[in-house]
Each structure stands twice: as structure tokens, then as C-alpha cells.
């Protein structure tokens, strides 16, 4: 039985996404080093950057097994966060990256990959998803621990104000990425075996993550995520 093109497209996209995640984490870890952050955070940031490269390797193995032949198209301008050029202190850029990429992105990644893994039976896909599901829990925890560390600093009141102002935009971005709304594109058994799922499920999982993770975690920090979620529209 032939493998749909959707499978190779998706796995190549994942290779590119993992490279991007590694670059972002390396840059964030450098910034944390410049700030004199806890060595534990720095060690974990470096470990995560390596995790993402391993994920890229395993994703490429799945891509090749599915019949892919081209290499990933890595756009250098997307590989990283980008140097702070708007005049704001480095700490503000670190704060934004922690919240946006890790507290939001890596937190929802845990249930997303759990769902993808559930029906994946192709060995190359399952190997990657098994590894990612374990790693993403640590990546999620890194984000919330790093945010907690930031909020222990002398400027914590300022940081809380900035998070409250920026959170609607972060929520809007992740909803554009995952919440497909009315799109209901059924996937075949072959696609599910290769670790794909109906795009509509991404949105459903994101909304469930808000209720189970985002809202209570931010509430513990004194941030009303519900207001930000509603403003994100």
C-alpha cells in the first residue's frame, strides 16, 4: 500500500521544526548565561537543545522511511530568536521567550505528542514519538521552572505586568498555529500509523490544555489567563 505524500510532507516539516527549536533553545540558554542564571537552568537548556537535534535526526529517519528524498529547507532567519534590537533589556526578551515558547508551546506539546503516539505503529514514527513524549515533559517543566526563577528576581512585579500585557498575543499566536476551527480533515489509517492526526484535534487539545494547564499554572503566579485567552479571540 502506497504512503500518502502528506506523510513525507509532515515528517519533513517536523525535521525543520526541531532544528528551529534547537536553535531557539541554544540562543535562550546563551541569554540565560549572560544573565547569570542558575547553572541548573543552563545545563537543562543545553540538554534540551541537544534533545531537539536528536528529534530532528529521528524525524528525518521517519521521513526517509516514508520515501522522502530531499533534505530539509532550513531558513536561517527563522533559526533562532533574533538579537534584541528594540532597546528593551535582555531580561524582557528572555521572559517573553520562556512564556511563549516553553510555558505555552512545550506545555501543549505533551498532550499533542501523546495523541500522535497513540495510533502510531510504524517503527520509525513510534521511535521518534516515544522519545519526544518523554523529553517534552522535561521541556515543559523547564519553562515553568525558568519562569518561576524570573519571578523571584527583584523586577518580578515588572515582569508580571509584562506577562499580562503580552499573554493575549502569545495565546493568539498559538491558537493560529493549532486551532483549525471548523477544519475537519479526516486522516487515513496509514497516516495515523505514521503519526498524523486530524487537524481539528490540534485545536481540541489546545483548548483542553488551557483548562488543565495554562489557566491553573498562571493562576498560581497571580495571572488571570482567562482574560488573556478571551482577549486573544
Any descriptors?
globular; mainly alpha; Ferritin; 233 residues
Outline the structure in words:
By secondary structure, this protein is mainly α. The chain has one domain (5-232): Ferritin (Up-down Bundle). It is 74% helix and 0% strand. The protein has eight helices and no strands. The longest helix has 30 residues, at 5-34. The protein is globular, with a radius of gyration of 18 Å. The model has no long low-confidence stretch (mean pLDDT 93).
Compute the number of helices: 8
Specify the CATH homologous superfamily: Ferritin, core subunit, four-helix bundle
Order of helices and strands: HHHHHHHH
Overall 3D shape: globular
Beta content: under 5%
**End-to-end span in angstroms?**
43 Å
Number of strands: 0
Label the structural class.
mainly alpha
| Known CATH architecture | Up-down Bundle
- Count of the domains: 1
CATH topology: Ferritin
In round numbers, the mean pLDDT is: 93
Helix percentage:
over 70%
- Spans of at least 5 consecutive residues with low confidence: none
What is Rg?
A: 18 Å
Largest sheet: none
Oligomeric state as shown: single chain
